[in-house]
Design brief:
The chain has 938 residues and is of the alpha+beta class. 51% of the residues lie in helices and 11% in strands. Strand 6 (391-394) and strand 7 (397-400) form a beta hairpin.
Length: 938
């Protein structure tokens, strides 16, 4: 039974007319099941026939789809049509069964006639490979014994076939009563489609349901669908630009398209979207032909992705996770093009499609509401400024005055948004519709001073992220700033960024808004204070808007973006001074974070180098605020107290240098001050004990800690010496920094760092920073700052008492050789399979210029449990001493920096030695094969 007439033609694929020739017809399974009217085959034999039939249906559709003979929507319709035949055969076979014992007492004529109808997606005539089959057993009045037995018999057959079946058995009256106050049931009945049985019953139902809908009105259904959509988006993603989108339920997904179909069907009874095109259509032309085609393209593309997703996973999977994205993209033919990988091109297409669905929803929904419930009561604004700006009020919300020729006065779009901001009012749905349809007019506004002034006012004003997001969603921003269009829907295939590039940028502007309102004073006090001291306020917001504008072009996006800023800023009306500031900020927007997380900020050269680049306190303030907002906008798990501490300390040290004209005290003077401060902290100790401690540390040690830490170390060392303890482990939870400090005092030997790092990995801790010091007595005083690596508290403080106790034991076992580190690390739970698809090539950078006293090694690679154990083991095997380590993780990418010397305390400058070191580290960065690659398994 064909169902094609029930699906909106506007949502059919563009290539529908080129549908391949019909495949070889399936055998008539009804004749196989019922060879003669009085002798249906036995149930077991029937089940075997039906299983073979189902297998032929599924394989036929899959083969045609994977051969690219069918688009996703065509395949979904074909699968629905072929499933109709199977259901019809099961229905006929069910009716051919003799009555059961419970039904023998009732004559067939006494039973009400019933009809079998499809509902849900199946009712719309489309099925995914692993979708549910929703059925309605419908009758004039409640079913008797024969009818109930037939329903039960049919359902058990479907379940035994392995099909997922949703079902309801209702009379027409029960359908209407249940639907009266339940929009979910109303929706299911909207999709109801006749399959088999007494068609007269179905027609009576349709007539009764149409009358009931007219009585209930569109308003209640519209409100219910909006509430349902809001809850769904809150659960599955409020943004259409999440990098692991939910294809069905997320914003801009299949369910949003279906919602528009339901609203149109409920309001006008239309079955085809083209019926809403043209002045003679219901509502007077709610869609243009172009918009109808956009609906069709989005619907077909999403169905194609969904079919691939189901076939790849072998289940009704709707979430497009990282591991599935490259596979689905490759199956759909997306390959590398220029600087973009195939998977990034595929995801950009998906995100742009989701954006189109959001826009189409904003276009059609208010138009349906206006056509069915009447136009809103538009009031001329009492405020003369609003009226003069061409803005009116309806339902307490703002919209463009009806009849205003926007093409003659396009700036009214920006005036509308500014008025909503200034008066803290919502935009009317009809305003969104007008903005979307008139967004192309923004092209003619480029370089216009009045338009630029309005835009900059919106960008740097109150709640600017909210209004920039509106301009982005309606398509205005991409036309006004053409370079912005290139980052819309652009994802970075990693697990660090939660949003696409443009959505991340808007989130970063939102953080600036929070900083200005003082909402982050507790989390980031320095940035919250500094944003009020910044003079280049407009430059800050424009720099944030443009900081990632060059991503996806290849090369260094900071350098390319700085050049683009030189072109864009004058068009926006910025002064030459502001343009220079914006360009500099875009060029250096990663400087502070890279320095704080990858360099030793206790090294004076690090501070002097960054001060030389920054040169002014104003630029330093701008960079810190920009950095904080940028990082907090990446995702909820990126920011923590430890990173805040590093940024804050770096800022104050550079600020001190800038204020003092690059005056950094000589090393010996700083060491003497540190020793004196430590001696003051130990004033109650015997003089001999104090002098003994002061003689233990080399200069690097004294410059690495504050006096309080020196005093704690002194107590730890004194106690260890009095007890003759070969190993002491101390832990201290630092809540403000969101880290736990682990200090180890023991005899120094090669590979010590590697063994401790391995023990910490086995204990479930992840190292975020480390300082390694060998004392003059040959003992090592190593300090590690760690966080919890377990999924439930990943990135949180490692503070559970049982974990801390276990950590100390594991360190002792690792150093004594009683712990098989390699074996134990291998047992540590591996990451989810969905993350393995994100590849991080190993990279080793050796820098002999970043420090005056050490060789700096920077490692980039795939993070994994025990990575630090492996790479530090390789460093030790090369006969090198690690002075400090700086550990940073960006999603699954580890960026680890080590300050090292050779056994003579010198930098490593021999080219052959450097080449050997680089090769050893690249080997250590290479992840071991996964268990499934080795033929093992869980």
């Amino acid at each position: 039974m064909s169902s094609s007439g029930d699906l909106p033609d506007a949502l059919a694929p563009a290539a529908e007319t080129a549908r391949p020739a019909p495949l070889r017809p399936l055998p008539d399974v009804v004749l196989d099941l019922i060879p003669s009217p009085d002798s249906p085959v036995a149930r077991d034999a029937a089940l075997g026939l039906l299983r073979r039939q189902l297998g032929r249906i599924q394989s036929r559709v899959q083969e045609a789809f994977e051969a690219h003979a069918l688009s996703g929507l065509t395949a979904a319709r074909m699968l629905g049509e072929l499933t109709d035949g199977l259901i019809f055969a099961i229905h006929a076979y069910t009716l051919a069964q003799p009555p059961g014992e419970a039904a023998k007492g009732s004559a067939a004529g006494d039973e009400p006639s019933f009809v079998l109808a499809a509902t849900g997606g199946y009712g719309r005539g489309v099925l995914g490979p692993y979708s549910d089959i929703d059925l309605l057993f419908l009758s004039d009045r409640p079913l008797g014994p024969r009818g109930r037995r037939a329903v039960e018999f049919m359902l058990y057959l479907l379940w035994d076939l392995g099909l997922k079946v949703g079902h309801a058995t209702r009379s027409i009256h029960e359908c209407l009563e249940d639907a009266r106050a339940d929009a979910t049931i109303q929706t299911a009945l909207l999709d109801a489609r006749f399959l088999a049985g007494d068609v007269a019953v179905f027609e009576r139902f349709q007539n009764a349901f149409a009358e009931a809908r007219e009585q209930w009105g569109v308003g209640q259904f519209l409100l219910a669908k909006r509430a349902e959509r809001t809850a769904r988006h809150r659960r599955y993603g409020d943004s259409p630009y999440l990098v692991e989108p939910h294809l069905k339920e997320g914003r801009g997904g299949l369910r949003d398209v279906q919602t528009m179909y339901w609203l149109a069907r409920y309001a006008f009874g239309v079955r085809k979207m083209p019926e809403l095109v043209g002045p003679d259509s219901p509502g007077g032309g709610l869609l243009t032909a172009r918009e109808a085609r956009a609906f069709r393209r989005a619907w077909d593309f999403l169905w194609t992705v969904r079919f691939h997703l189901h076939y790849v996973t072998g289940r009704a999977e709707e979430r497009l996770t990282f591991d599935l994205q490259p596979v689905v993209g490759a199956r759909m033919g997306y390959t590398r093009h220029g600087k973009q990988d195939g998977v990034e091109r595929f995801m950009k297409h998906l995100f742009l499609t989701a954006r189109d669905v959001v826009r189409l929803s904003r276009l059609l929904e208010p138009a349906i509401e206006r056509a069915t419930l009447g136009p809103p009561a538009v009031q001329r604004a009492a405020d003369a400024a609003l009226a003069e700006a061409g803005i009116a009020i309806a339902d307490g919300k703002l919209l463009i005055v009806p009849g205003l020729a926007v093409e003659k006065e396009p700036a009214v779009m920006l005036r509308l948004v500014r008025a909503a901001r200034d008066r803290n009012m919502e935009l009317h749905p009809l305003a969104h519709r007008a903005l979307i349809r008139n967004a192309p007019l923004a092209v003619g506004m480029r370089g216009d001073k009045a338009a630029s002034d309005l835009f900059l006012d919106l960008l740097q004003g109150k709640d600017s992220a909210r209004w920039i997001r509106v301009l982005n969603e309606v398509g205005f921003l991409s036309r006004f700033i053409p370079d912005w269009a290139r980052i819309v829907g652009l994802m970075q295939f990693d697990t660090y960024h939660v949003f696409t590039v443009e959505e991340h940028t808007i989130e970063a502007i939102a953080v600036l808004n929070q900083l200005q309102r003082g909402e982050l004073a507790e989390a980031v006090p320095v940035a919250s204070e500094l944003i009020g001291q910044i003079h280049s306020h407009r430059a800050l917001y424009v720099a944030m808007l443009l900081h990632d504008i060059a991503k996806g072009r290849g090369g260094d996006h900071s350098e390319i973006g700085a050049g683009l800023a030189q072109e864009i800023c004058p068009r926006l009306g910025l002064t030459p001074e502001e343009t220079e500031t914006v360009s500099w900020l875009v060029l250096n927007h990663l400087l502070v974070s890279q320095t704080a997380f990858k360099r030793d900020i206790d090294d004076p050269k690090t501070i002097l180098d960054i001060a030389e680049v920054v040169q002014s306190p104003e630029r330093l303030r701008l960079l810190l605020v920009l950095t904080v907002a940028d990082m907090r906008a990446v995702g909820p798990k990126v920011w923590n107290g430890w990173k805040a501490t590093l940024l804050r300390e770096l800022y104050w040290r550079v600020a001190e240098v800038l204020a003092g004209g690059l005056s950094v005290p000589e090393r010996d003077v700083r060491v003497a001050r540190a020793k004196q401060a430590a001696a003051d902290m130990l004033a109650t100790w015997p003089k001999e004990a104090v002098e003994h401690f002061l003689g233990l540390g080399y200069p690097g040690y004294w410059l690495s800690f504050d006096p309080e830490s020196h005093a704690r170390h002194a107590g730890m060392i004194r106690e260890a010496e009095e007890r003759g303890a070969p190993l002491s482990v101390s832990t201290r939870v630092l809540e403000a920094r969101a880290v736990t400090e682990v200090t180890v005092y023991c005899s120094d030997h090669p590979g010590l760092f590697s063994r401790i790092a391995g023990a910490l990995a086995v204990a479930g801790a992840t190292i975020v920073d480390a300082r390694i010091h060998t004392m003059t007595n040959g003992m090592a005083l190593d300090t590690f700052w760690v966080q919890d690596a377990q999924a439930a508290n990943a990135g949180g403080v490692f503070d559970a008492s049982h974990k801390l106790a276990k950590l100390s034991v594991l360190i002792e076992q690792a150093l004594s050789g009683r712990l098989n580190l390699v074996g134990e690390i291998a047992k540590v739970r591996r990451e989810p399979a969905r993350l393995r698809a994100v590849q991080v090539p190993g990279r080793v950078v050796i820098d002999n210029f970043a420090s005056n006293t050490h060789t700096v090694i920077e490692l980039n690679g795939r993070d994994r449990p025990g990575l630090l154990h492996d790479v530090t083991g390789a460093i030790s095997a090369q006969g090198l001493q690690i002075a400090s380590a700086h550990i940073t993780t960006y999603g699954v990418r580890a960026v680890d920096v080590f300050y090292v010397k050779d056994v003579f305390g010198l930098k490593i400058e021999n080219e052959r030695k450097l080449a050997t070191l680089r090769a050893a580290l690249l080997t250590a960065l290479t992840p071991p094969p996964a268990e499934d690659e080795l033929g093992g398994g869980a």
